[in-house]
Every structure is written in C-alpha cells, then in structure tokens.
Amino acid sequence: MSDASNESSNATARTDATKPEAAVARPVVGRLVPGEAAGADDPSLTLRELSAGAILEVGAWPNRLENVANRLGELAGVTLPGRPGRFTESASALVCWIAFGRFIYVGAATEDTGRVDTALDTEDAAVVDLAGARRIVRIEGETAREVLNKAVAIDFDPTSFPAGALAQSVIHQIPVVILRRSETAFDVLAPSSLADALIDWMTDAALEFGYRVGEPGTIL
C-alpha cells in the first residue's frame, strides 16, 4: 500500500474515532430546550424553567415584623404561614417566609414590584428587587426528591416536608431556595448568574431516571 493510501486510512480512522456517539442524547449545556429528552426511554421527570413578573426579598426590621407580615399577606391576598420554612400562595402571588424577618414575595405581575415597594416604608423593611437576579427551575415527577437528595441532605418525605414547605440550601455550591409545590413538584430558585450551572447539575443528576424538558411556564 502506498504512503498516500496509509495517510488516507489513518485520517479516516482518526475522524471516526472523534465522532460523538449517537446512542445517548446529551442535554444542551446550561439551558433547558423544550422537547429535549435524555436518559431512560420512558422519562419519569419533567424539567422546565418558570418566570415571574416580580420577585422581591423583604427584610423586616425586628420591631416591625408583624406589620410587614400583615402587609405582605394583604398584598398577596393570603394568610401568611405561622413560621419560617413555609410559603402560601394565591392566584396572583406567593409569599415565602424564608427566615426570621426575611421574606420572598413572588408576584405574577411586574407591577407588584412597585406595589410592594410603596406599601412598605423604609422604617418597616428593606426591599430588594430580585426579578433579574433569580431564575426558577421546576423539577417534577415521582423521583424528583431522589434527584434533589443527591445534593441536599433534607428529608423530603411528604410527612416531614409537605407541599407548602420551603428550605434554603446549597446545590453544587449554588445557594438555592427549594419550594415544594405538590407531592411530586419542586421549584428551585437560584441566582441568575449561576442558574446555567444548576441546570447542568440537574440534567446530569436526572439522567439516571430519565427526563424530558417541558415548555417554559409561569410560577403562578
């Protein structure tokens, strides 16, 4: 065989060796693409991004906590939970009590940002607009809690962590707030700058069970 033929054969072998395997579908890094599926033939999980019109963090001054809680409840049209680690929602807003004196207000309308800011005086609380600083990913399915438990040491059994419960935690070195929306659905709020890394982790962790990506939606 001539040197030219050898070089041609070697080039072909190198090209074949570098071709990606077609047997396993891999996710697009850093974002969720509707219709994408990976892992098991019959995926047990659905991942999708959610949006909100307004997301605000409210820090009540200690002597104004009751007043702030009442005002947030009135704005959202809900009765706030009796303690931190819980959230309540109406058709248009969701209020998370994440720690003593600290709340996250999620509204369906962008106008809620101004409504909350106007309703709370600076003597009542500090209000920070997080609408552009947070992204929300929903993971839903019978094995959703198993995926989260790969990174989070929380007992997600419904008797310990029922719908309406929330927790602050860390996933893959990313600070998150986890909301349990139903027995099989969790919403994960993460800093926008780190959300792509969170999605990478979630898709990798979900491969074991198989997942599909749903259409983007709204949190309310």
UniProtKB/TrEMBL annotation:
Any Pfam family: SoxG
Residue span of region Disordered: 1-21
Superkingdom field: Bacteria
Coiled-coil ranges from the UniProt annotation: none
Biased composition (Polar residues): 1-15
Name assigned to this protein: Sarcosine oxidase, gamma subunit family, heterotetrameric form
